[in-house]
Amino acid sequence: MARSKRLTLKDHVRETLIFNQRVIIAAIVVMLMTAILITRLVYLQIVNVGHYSLLSENNRVNTLPIPPIRGLIYDRNGILLAQNLPSFTLELVPEHIDNLEQTLAELDKLINLTEQDIARFKKYRKRHKRRFEGVPLRFRLNDQEVARIAVNQYRLAGVEIDAQLTRHYPLGSLAAHAVGYVGRINEAEASRIDESDYSGTNHIGKIGIEKSYEDLLHGTVGFQRVETNAQGRILRVLERTLPIPGKNLYLNLDVKLQAIAEQGFSSKDSEYNTGALVAIDPRDGAVLALASLPTFDPNLFVNGIDTKTYAQLRDSPDRPLFNRALRGQYPPGSTVKPLIGLAGLEFGEVNSHQEIDCPGWYTLKNDPRRYRDWKKEGHSATDLTKAIVESCDVYFYDLSLALGIDNIYSYLSQFGLGELTGIDVEGEKAGLMPSPAWKRRARQLPWFPGETLITGIGQGFMLTTPLQLSSITATLSLRGGRMQPQMLYAVESPETTEFTTIPSTPVKQRPHAEENHWQTIINAMEQVVHGVHGTARRISRNLPFKIAGKTGTAQVFGIKQDEEYVEEDIKKKLRDHALFIGFAPVEDPQIAVAVIVENGGSGGAIAAPIARRVMDQYLLNTEN
Amino acid sequence: MAMQQSQIMDAPQSRVRRSRFPKLHIDWALFIALLLLAGVGLFVLYSAGDKSMELVSRQGMRVLIAFLVMIAIAQFSPYSIQFWSPMLFGLGLLLLFAVLLMGEIGKGAQRWLDLGFVTFQPSEIMKLAVPMMLAWYLADAPLPPSKGRLTIAALALIIPTLMVAKQPDLGTSLLIASSGVFVLILAGLSWRFMGTVLILIAASTPVVWNYLLHDYQRQRVLTFINPGIDPLGAGYHINQSTIAIGSGGLYGKGWLNGTQSHLDFLPERSTDFVFAVFSEEFGFLGILILLSLYAFIITRGLIIAMQAQSTFGRLIAGSITLTFFVYVFVNIGMVSGILPVVGVPLPLVSYGGTSIVTLMAGFGILMSIQTHRKLMAN
Questions:
Q1: B325-332 average pLDDT score
Q2: What is the ipTM of this complex?
Q3: Which of A75, A588, B152, B314 is the most exposed place for a label (fewest CB within 10 A)?
């Protein structure tokens, strides 16, 4: 109810004055506040435009990796050793699933879900924030399961099958130690590798060629810059840098040879199933076969081996995961005798005609201990050739003593004993070439003369790997030439199919001997196989080419004085290792082989036949 | 001076028009500025709503209704508006009670009243009813008001403000409070009194903070002070909108090219945060043009207030104009990250129903005051 009120003129003027004054003050405040807003906007849009543009760009643009395809591995004849096969993962997309329980029930009818599948799915589901991204339910679907889901796809909304490439080794356990395998990247590896280079890749080479040539096999990761919305859904691809696939590798390995080598251990007698064989082409150092027995299926490791299977492999007394060819360190036994003989000739301690009398044992002055020959009754009058052919220990005791450990050490080191061969696959061991200096350092003990004697027959401290033995055999065959053992034959770029063969690497350090000294030793080694008294004479039957070789037995444990070594009485694991080294053909050496059969007992009977089968395959190309 | 000049200039024109047609009471300067602003709003909305013509046409309908409401109100004389003020206030208060009661029953936040055919927010009525009521009451006695009248006016201001704040709707209660406070200040409230009240408010802040604010409101203020505490939750709005504004730069990314808004990074982008879309797409220059439009409207409103011939008219015109500025300031301030996030729309640009009608009704009152002036003088 507006009542009329009489106002004096003075009141009215005063009121208007006050009001106008207040409006003007208000207008000033409005201007000041507007100035604050404009200042803020200048700060955001003019001063910091770069910063906010970057933030906005980062908001919108995501960089996603495109993993490269891993290179394939072939043998020297192009037989596939490692490939990538599509593997199917069943995924559920939460966004498109109305009733999860019902979908799971439907899938259970089709592919029998396990409780483990469902538990793992629920765990992954909590981690996945983006509702349009698939959550894995089952890995490694087989073809039948894929087909069953594909047929029923129309009524399974939100069920997707994702195809990925998984490493596969088609030959299974064959050459598993040499080729190696890939596995999921673990934490230690993750801290070592370039993270961006492995984004989008889950696997990395763990052992063997897969590990040693990881850089070549992996390739270079590609990227795509994509525009995403706030939920992370990809709207479009802005830019794409394609990945560069990994290089295909061709190995020097000959799979047929490798198979023969591996069969040599398993087929004959289950007792002799552990050991190693290395075959090298002496001319270029190409590793033709690299076998370590027993072996294992590398496919088990690719997507994570289950703990039970792994425990079985790990705890097996035969140690299938142990790469004996590169890492097994054995006393070389009598296989070292040709080198000692050569050293004797070179240092002028013996000549090829000198004979000694072998009574079956040897003693040092002021030492009651008897150093026994393997042949109890002795070899009677023995020259160097006979000493090698019949593997007379007494001859080499005497020669070693004459040479002295320093000469033995310096000469044998020229062959690379006690050193890494430099093979292009990870993990090899150096073995041990003992010397007084080494013994003082490692054991804080002086060198005893008796130790010189047993070094001369490849016992005592001396340790070699099968790879080293094959390498010295190759060096003998070349009469002093040394090539670095090499697994990789060639690299192929899958994009350009450019094929690059890897040149072989000669080793600078090489043993020197006069031509007739080499000839003496090689002749003796030929007699080992082809001579009537040769310790490996049984492999010479129907042999169309000439092999020069040397057998050996490596003591697993020492025999007390005056004790008989009776093979049958000793438990298998304590029996001597059987060794054989050899090359062929003698006139034109093309293959050098070293074999060790753990607890095989006799080199001539057990190890040499395996070497011959490998040589037959390589030189005659027959499946013998 | 200014008042007299414009009277002389306007007089012959209106006389001519009155002689030929029944006079349509419209302030054309204000009308055109508002029309331009609404046009800009629909343009931005098309972009903010992902090119949805449906959204634009729905908002276009609201704008049309709001303009019709404004023109209709402008036809009433300021006297009748003054006369109906207490009734409107009483109705608003009643509806607020109804909303609060229904909120009690519904056990949750309640702002809307469902009248069967339409739902609306009674708090919107109060945005106009409170300043009208105060202006009506204070115009009844000589100014500046006495202490007794001031107390009653303060009650008429505080009660509805608290009721709206309790709904809870911090933005609207803030607008209601400021519209009432503007009436009091323009009525000649003494500076000393205002100082005392400010000190009292400052002193009562801890009480308000601990007992009167809801958790989410406290969270908003905390987030405002440090958006980093919750970059994906409450701080997300502010971070994303400052990124949108900042990345717009001087010239903007162009209409429909704002990546922040079109890729869903910007929340509430067609309603309270529409200014961020505008800034991203039209840049600083676009903002200057938008702010000029607002400045023109506010200047025009203040001129109308100063030229008004009744106490009620000048108080209500001044209050409506200054409250309009508060809308603009609070909205841009919160979107650009210098004020906490409170639900205040950008007038005539933000998508939304009731608020635009209330706003235009306010401008209708301004036009009524301006265009009925000469009749009164006669």
A1: 94
A2: 0.87
A3: A588
